[in-house]
Amino acid sequence: MANDSDGTTSANTGADMDWDARAAGFDEEPDHGLRDPEVRRAWAARLRSWLPGRAGDVLDLGCGTGSLSLLASEQGHRVTGVDLSPAMVTLARQKLAGRDAVFLIGDAAAPPVGEQRFDAVLVRHVLWALPDPGRALRHWAGLLRPGGRLVLVEGVWGTAGPVGIPAERLTGLLAPIGGQVRVERLSGDPLLWGGEVTDERYAVVAVTA
């Protein structure tokens, strides 16, 4: 998952960020830890509208400390989380102890889930940092059951040297996969971020055939 102040991500295998070292303080960001009740409710409402209406299997890639995984679990879904950082995975396991959730250490671009298939793949602030996002999207789509959905929360951060992936590019990468695609702009909802933001933040929900 990303640190929204700089746009970096724990799923970026080429990053020089020590995510194990940052794990203990990761949840201090309002949209990471979701400790503020209003921020938490805002994300829960969005997630409810993005994920399948009935309980299903959700794969949370770049899951970080498991905050979105917890919301999905509370909404009745069975969760598998994957993150490259062992320390993040440890915290996620603690956060969802006793729930129907499994957390694995691995690369978000090629999650170690074998032949398991899912009703939704949830990815927040990960895709933009992967070396081949188109390939990752095709792989993730292959992990879905028929009628499954990709839920992709992304953006473009920074002014002097912007990083990220614009919504138009992401929807273009999804075109070969097919299915129904909708874009939901998120920059204008300060409750999601713990305050006003001026950069591009959005969600794309792609429902496969």
From TrEMBL:
Transmembrane annotation, as ranges: none
UniProt KW Phosphoprotein keyword: no
Coiled-coil regions, chain positions: none
A Pfam family hit: Methyltransf_11
Keyword vocabulary terms for this entry: Methyltransferase, S-adenosyl-L-methionine, Transferase
Keyword Oxidoreductase set for record: no
Single GO MF annotation: methyltransferase activity
Gene Ontology process terms (BP): methylation
Source organism superkingdom: Bacteria
Domain called Methyltransferase type: residue spans: 59-152
Name of the protein in question: Class I SAM-dependent methyltransferase
Lineage: Bacteria, Bacillati, Actinomycetota, Actinomycetes, Kitasatosporales
